[in-house]
Specification:
6% strand, four-stranded mixed β-sheet, alpha/beta
């Protein structure tokens, strides 16, 4: 299952230093973990981040096991409806890949089976919007072409994974679910060359509708944030008024209530400022409200033009191309020297759910990661920080790393989600998530800086370090490795990064304030960084 592409030196360096993730990464369910808010706004002194309600936690894995018929008909049902050429090749090559007497022949046919399997999947994509049989669903989702090629223990692992599960705030998809979302038009295709997309009047209207819906989401998010700010001031006002109208009695004068105290008079002097803030917020809310009503009107007009169809009807080529895009994601996760075999068989299948990147396991790891890198899923728009979790596609493949396919839609930077691919079967699941998120971190920062990415922001600082130290190789790959060390080792106070890199990450991808308070006592370098934070805060230059 190892893809051979993971730097062994990095693996040895990281070891088991991350007790928080490593000790819990294989659980089948997930407990609620409070998700931290974005980094605090710039003020005159360091602030501790405020706690916000956590997203709903995944439910425990269903106790009732999935019913799977273990017989030879499984393979036949998988092949039903596929192109005859590829079904015949699948049958012949799979048999020889598993049963050829000579090892070299088995290896040869396993290599041939890679292309055959993906061609076969492309030939059944026209069925994706129908009610797929359980056998086809397991084949597309997990790479199970023949259930008899797994051991009873391995089958039990598959049975223990919930077949249908959705979690609010966590847009994670298995391959069959992703294809269905693309086919229905709910998610845009991942095609790089958009000129190949079938263009129709309906699809053009659908694109306009998608953009308007994205704009509505952005405006609605800003509206909600301003309402939350208004509520915070109103609560403060209520508390201030209660404090102002509370008077102590004067015993020597028949318990008559006393005059205002200096503190109460000070409270009164602040009312004017609070009222001014509320009036300013209300003007902004009125602007957002007018914008939302205008967008709703545009959406209604577009829907009327689209007629009764309501959504674009894409032809089968779109889903076939999306299947090819997913194939590229699987190859990237495996790496050039990794295991590219597309099917799940006993030689490669994990015997423990700990090594399967199910939705529940990945959400658990993502929650723990967000506790450390609080701003990882936040994006700034019009002065507001919005939490936008990327799409995570759990692809059926073997690999040690995940990849970021797209940081966000460049046509809708405010609210569009990025796209991350994570292999289902990983020797170290937390590595696959961290490499994907590190890749996302780099690409988001690079796109944000634009053509000045070598000069500005996170990528600019890291590029300066890379050039000044005359490092060679892929700069993004080096960044991802350093990001993993930052999360797994530096979090625990183990100083493994170069000093310059630690300075960059401390400033641009900071740990929560409480962790900084703890780390300042763990070494000279952390204490030095902490003091720099204090100096910047005092000079209001953070």
């Amino acid at each position: 299952m190892s893809n051979g592409d993971m730097d062994q030196e990095l693996t040895d360096l990281l070891g088991d230093g991350d007790e928080d993730i490593a000790s819990q990464g294989g659980t089948t369910g997930a407990t609620a973990v409070a998700i931290p808010p974005p980094p605090p706004k710039k003020t005159g002194q360091p602030q501790e981040t405020q706690k916000v309600p956590p997203p709903p936690a995944p439910s425990p894995v269903a106790k009732k096991k999935l019913s799977i018929n273990i017989n030879k008909d499984f393979f036949k049902k998988v092949l039903e409806g596929g192109d005859r050429e590829y079904t015949e090749k699948m049958t012949d090559q799979l048999d020889k890949a598993m049963n050829a007497p000579v090892r070299e022949d088995r290896t040869l046919f396993r290599q041939k089976l890679i292309a055959t399997h993906w061609n076969f999947l492309g030939s059944i994509t026209h069925l994706i919007n129908t009610k797929l049989s359980l056998e086809k669903k397991l084949c597309i989702r997990y790479g199970i072409a023949d259930i008899t090629l797994l051991t009873p223990d391995q089958i039990d692992v598959i049975r223990s994974i919930p077949l249908d599960s959705e979690y609010e705030d966590w847009p994670f998809y298995y391959m069959d679910e992703w294809l269905q979302e693309v086919a229905s038009g709910k998610i845009k295709a991942s095609m790089v060359d958009e000129t190949k997309m079938p263009k129709t009047t309906t699809s053009a209207q659908q694109e306009k509708l998608d953009r308007k819906i994205d704009s509505r989401k952005a405006s609605l998010t800003l509206f909600k944030n301003k309402v939350a700010g208004r509520e915070a001031i109103e609560k403060t006002l209520v508390g201030s008024i209660n404090a102002m109208i509370t008077h102590s009695p004067i015993p020597q004068y028949d318990d008559i209530l006393n005059v205002y105290t200096p503190e109460q008079k000070n409270i009164m002097s602040k009312f004017t400022d609070d009222f001014r803030k509320l009036k300013a917020i209300d003007n902004i809310l009125l602007s957002h409200l007018r914008e939302l009503r205008g967008i709703d009107s545009d959406i209604e007009n577009i829907k009327n033009k689209m007629g009764d169809e309501g959504v674009a009807e894409y032809d089968d080529r779109l889903i076939t191309d999306e299947c090819n895009s997913l194939r590229q994601m699987v190859k990237m996760c495996a790496g050039p020297r990794g295991n590219h075999f597309p099917l799940l068989i006993r030689d490669y299948c994990p015997t423990s759910l700990e090594y399967v990147n199910t939705k529940e396991n990945v959400i658990k790891l993502a929650q723990e990661l967000e506790q450390k890198d609080a701003g990882v899923f936040y994006r700034e728009f019009k002065g507001q920080s919005n939490r936008i979790v990327p799409y995570m596609i759990l692809v059926p493949g073997y690999g040690e790393k995940g990849v970021c396919w797209e940081p966000f839609d460049i046509r809708q930077r405010a609210t569009s989600r990025g796209r991350i691919a994570i292999p289902l079967y990983a020797r170290t699941p937390k590595y696959s998530l961290l490499t994907a998120v590190g890749d996302l971190r780099w690409q988001v920062a690079k796109e944000k800086a634009g053509y000045r990415w070598m000069e500005e922001g996170l990528t600019g600082k890291y590029y300066d370090y890379f050039i000044e130290n005359r490092l060679k190789g892929n700069i993004k790959a080096e960044f991802v490795k350093d990001y993993m060390i930052w999360i797994l080792q530096e979090w625990n106070g183990t100083q493994k990064l170069e000093r310059d890199v630690r300075n960059i990450f401390w400033r641009h991808m900071p740990f929560p304030q409480w962790k900084k308070d703890e780390l300042k006592n763990r070494g000279f370098f952390y204490d030095e960084l902490y003091k720099k934070d204090m100096n910047r805060a005092m000079s209001d230059g953070y």
